[in-house]
Amino acid sequence: MIRFESVSKVYDNQRRAALNEVDVEIEKGEFVFLVGASGSGKSTFLRLILREQRPTTGRVFVAGRELNRLHSWKIPSMRRQIGTVFQDFRLLPNKTVHENVAFALQVIGKPASVIRRVVPEVLDLVGLDGKGDRMPDELSGGEQQRVAVARAFVNRPKILIADEPTGNLDPATSVGIMKLLDRINRSDTTVLMATHDSTIVDQMRKRVIELDEGIVVRDQSRGVYGY
Ligand SMILES: Nc1ncnc2c1ncn2[C@@H]1O[C@H](COP(=O)(O)OP(=O)(O)OP(=O)(O)O)[C@@H](O)[C@H]1O
């Protein structure tokens, strides 16, 4: 589903590579944690998958396509196959919960009848049944992140990328979000999550890829956060 072939990334005006000769293959349906110290290259890894950045050398494949060879007009449809969740939720503050999720479908041209049916279904799935009319600032952090997960998943993407999704949440709330991501993964969505949350990684026992200064120093199935 995702393949990195000898991928290096050196940002302009940087001496050190953010990623250095990375070879990684992630199969369809896997759940993978990406760990490593701050600045080790995790966000760069995720940005390359979204083609927000391009590799300096090497090749990145997503769902069989080499991203460097993708015409720019095909990038939006490629990104539609990838849901994204971030630490800071990134909800539209002036839209209700329902509207936030519906918006993700409107921008890709889904008909109103489909949106009316699908949005309550996904809000139910993430445990926000009955909260569709709330504004984001009327929700707890955990609930806001559930909205973000609903929005990322409503289009049933092949891949879900989560960059520190529990970074702003307390431990109990984080467990709830992880249960949700686990459930989404079980519906055959490949999940890739960058995190510093050692408790979560140790509890879940999924594949762990560790970066250190842009180099993959560990790739362990059913791994833990540290050694
Ligand atoms: N747009 C950019 N321009 C220049 N350098 C960058 C850019 N983005 C990241 N870097 C550098 O690339 C390296 C890797 O950064 P990256 O953000 O990928 O790390 P990270 O593991 O995600 O860190 P964190 O855990 O703090 O989010 C760092 O040295 C960083 O300073």
UniProtKB/TrEMBL annotation:
Pfam families: ABC_tran
GO cellular component: plasma membrane
Record-annotated ABC transporter domain positions: 2-227
Record's keyword terms, sorted: ATP-binding, Cell cycle, Cell division, Cell membrane, Membrane, Nucleotide-binding
Keyword Cell division carried by entry: yes
Coarse class of the protein's main subcellular location: membrane
Membrane topology term: Peripheral membrane protein
Membrane-spanning residues: none
SMART domains: AAA (SM00382)
A GO biological-process term: cell division
PROSITE patterns according to UniProt: ABC_TRANSPORTER_1 (PS00211), ABC_TRANSPORTER_2 (PS50893)
GO terms, molecular function: ATP binding; ATP hydrolysis activity; transmembrane transporter activity
Protein localization: Cell membrane
Assembly behavior: Homodimer. Forms a membrane-associated complex with FtsX.
Known role: Part of the ABC transporter FtsEX involved in cellular division. Has ATPase activity.
NCBIfam families: FtsE
Family: Belongs to the ABC transporter superfamily.
Annotated protein name in UniProt: Cell division ATP-binding protein FtsE
